[in-house]
Amino acid sequence: MICPFCETENRDEREKCYHCDSDLSMLRLVVNKAKQHYNLGLEHAERQRYEQAIAEMQNTIELNHDFAPAHVVLGTIYAKLERYDEARRQWEKALSLDSDCNKAYQYLRKLEAVRESLPTVRRLWLMVWSMTIVIVLLGVFLAMTLRASPDAGRLRKAFEAYSQQNLAVAQEQFAALKDSPSWIISETAAQWLEIIQQQIETDMKIINHFIADGDWKAAQNEIARLKQKNLPGRDHERLRGVSETVREFALKVWADELADVNAGRRSRADLRDLAHRIVELYPTDPRADEARRLLSEIEAAPAIPGEAGYDEIVAAYKADKNVEKALGALEQFLKRHPDHVDARELMASILSTRIEVVARACQDAIAQGRMAEAGQLMGELRALAGRDPSGKGAKSVADIGATYARALRESEATRLKKADLKAYAADENFFTLPEDVTGADRRYLEALAEEARQRIAWQAAEWMSKLDYRYQLLTITPEQALDTIRLAPLVLSHYPGRWVYPKTYFYQGAAHLRLDEYEKAEAAFARLLQQYPSSTYASLVPDVRQRAAIANKQRAQR
Hints:
Order of helices and strands: HHHHHHHHHHHHHHHHHHHHHHHH
Number of helices: 24
Radius of gyration: 32 Å
């Protein structure tokens, strides 16, 4: 597995990274769970249960996006189902993740030959089935004379229960088959009992990891998911105990934080997020009433006047612990009374506490990969450092800044490496890099962005090609026209083959015609006719112009 912090390759059983010593225990659990889904998918595929196999492979990919073998197997299953476009996309994805993936490369090379030979193959299969029909009828006759093994039927029912996520019934049925006279059935049942227990243990570890991180909402979501699996009795009780542990832990943290607020060690505003989570997760608990009251007090907190006296500032700060308002009032007060010792000490104390809180929150956000939140906290930390004469804020910025820059670089690198047409279409500023990324890191990300542009240009060209006849008939939707206008320049600037340029100019012009943007359409057609006058798409321009004129005339008559 690859360390998400430094991209070093590690063995799957490693708890910490060889290079940067980062904790990989959670990643190891996720990778192992992905492998369980992968092995189940292989089992389903071998038994020709293709829909179940597809579901397991998709679960594998969802847990481990960079696991190329899952894409290869998924593509193979799609090919067996004659879903060749989906198969090709999976094999191409595998190659993008692992350029040395020979299987994916070979399958892609054979795909067109398979498509061309498919009618012939179907005729051959028809001949084979016709020749074996007599044998099948004889087999049916023999099968009627034999009794099916009862244990084989029970094993099939156990597998059905497992596929329906009814683990209690599946475990009970597999356990009953461990003493089957059939060695194959008894061994299969024993192995599946072990798989079920390992799956439950892995899920329990994931919940415990969420608890350790203080992410109670994620822990509760995982618990709810496990409850749907109808766990066996003993494990069901364990899950109930874990759920109660999560609840008690969350409420204890709330009680401790609230005590700090009441003692004046924390601001009520600092508990806003925690209060919202308590209300959301435990709405009927008495503690949720405390959280609701605190949120109401925060909303109704009085404003601190800009010209308030020192005693008024202190009273207001003690009442609502609103740090920003208190700092602003103190700064205004110190402009008028620069030698006021108590005001300076209070401001230093508020700044010190706030810097510590923001720094800790920023470190937590970085550790959990919430980079947008971390960026906002870094901005707040820099602002606080600029107001702090003690230098504590500047030291925090220096200490956390390097970690933030490294994590931001890796986060952006991961985003760009996984970039696809869907992500680009959803974000107008997809290729805009954060301002905090500078120097060599920025050059590295710009290189990744360039690779992503080429990859998305290829996907965009493929998407437009599928609408070829609709462009010719001007039957694309306005939304498709807008997408085409946005994607065409990317294809023209970053697609590796110039053979796609003539039709891209044609698609661009047709899209403008669909939106009644005639001057822009003519500009695109002019580039097509000037640069590629003998292309097929150049010969289509008069027809599409005529269709646009007829459609415009019909609209005018209506």
